[in-house]
Specification:
With about 260 residues, this protein is α/β, with parallel strands linked by helices. It has nine helices and nine strands.
Length: about 260
């Protein structure tokens, strides 16, 4: 018999196996335990990978478990180190999952107008909406308030696709774009106006991001949930019956912030 092209006698001589019956398949009722050969993996010149193939390739003889049980602690540690190293590389190469900073809640059209008017959006502005939903704020800023362009980000691929279709329908698809993206990983430096309607639990982190990245003079308009530290330049209360369908209330709070000059 041969093992991967090597006769059993040669395998014995090289120290691959410890008994001649390595390749034998015991018949039913055979009490002879000599067929359960032990692999001399410590001295095998072809290495662990080939011995594993040898063991797993034989039927009814030595099981791969025998080889695994015979692994030294050092070899186990080496295998574990390789596994952890590969897993580390995989994690480093895989982008982190985007964080959910708020549910999909459409801002009523009447509130959209209040937000854009409070920000004083005009033809020189580039508007960025963090958590853009169906895209209505950025689309309105360009289509109805004359902003030169803008974009929105959302973690919902369905809403991003819908937003881009809405932009094309509104005739501003060349100046307005929407992306499936984590807002915390979004570059907002191009913005002159940023709009935010997110959960209170993330507003502190959003505040730090915007104050660190935006140019002085950039306006930020926040719907309902103010920043915890940043003092608003203006605050406006708005009543809208459209809000009932969204939150169950008619009132909205809108806050205007302006990035100060850096010392």
């Amino acid at each position: 018999m041969e093992i991967l092209g090597i006769r059993v006698e040669e395998a014995l001589k090289r120290g691959y196996i410890a008994c001649r019956e390595f390749d034998a398949v015991p018949s039913r009722g055979d009490k002879d335990d000599r067929s359960r050969c032990r692999v001399r993996h410590e001295t095998a010149p072809t290495g662990l990978a080939r011995l594993t193939r040898i063991v797993e390739g034989q039927v009814g003889t030595v099981r791969a478990a025998v080889l695994r049980k015979r692994l030294t602690r050092a070899r186990r540690a080496c295998v574990l180190a390789v596994v952890l190293f590969v897993a580390g590389i995989a994690n480093a190469q895989s982008p982190p999952s985007p964080r959910n900073a708020g549910p999909i809640v459409a801002t009523p059209t009447s509130i959209v107008d209040e937000i854009l008017e409070l920000a004083g959006v005009g033809r020189d502005d580039f508007v960025v909406d963090l958590g853009s939903g169906d895209g209505r704020i950025v689309i309105a800023a360009v289509a109805r308030y004359g902003a030169r362009g803008g974009f929105g980000v959302d973690i919902s691929p369905e809403m991003v696709a819908l937003s881009n279709r809405n932009a094309v329908t509104a005739g501003v698809g060349d100046r307005v774009h929407f992306y499936e993206r984590d807002l915390f990983a979004t570059d907002v430096r191009e913005a002159t106006v940023v709009t935010v309607y997110l959960l209170p639990s993330v507003m502190g982190e959003v505040e730090r991001k915007l104050r660190a990245e935006l140019k002085p003079g950039t306006r930020v308009v926040v719907h309902d949930f103010p920043f915890p530290q940043w003092q608003a330049e203006r605050a406006v209360s708005v009543e809208s019956l459209d809000k009932i369908k969204v939150t169950g209330f008619t009132s909205s709070q809108i806050f205007l912030y302006r990035v100060p000059e850096r010392p």
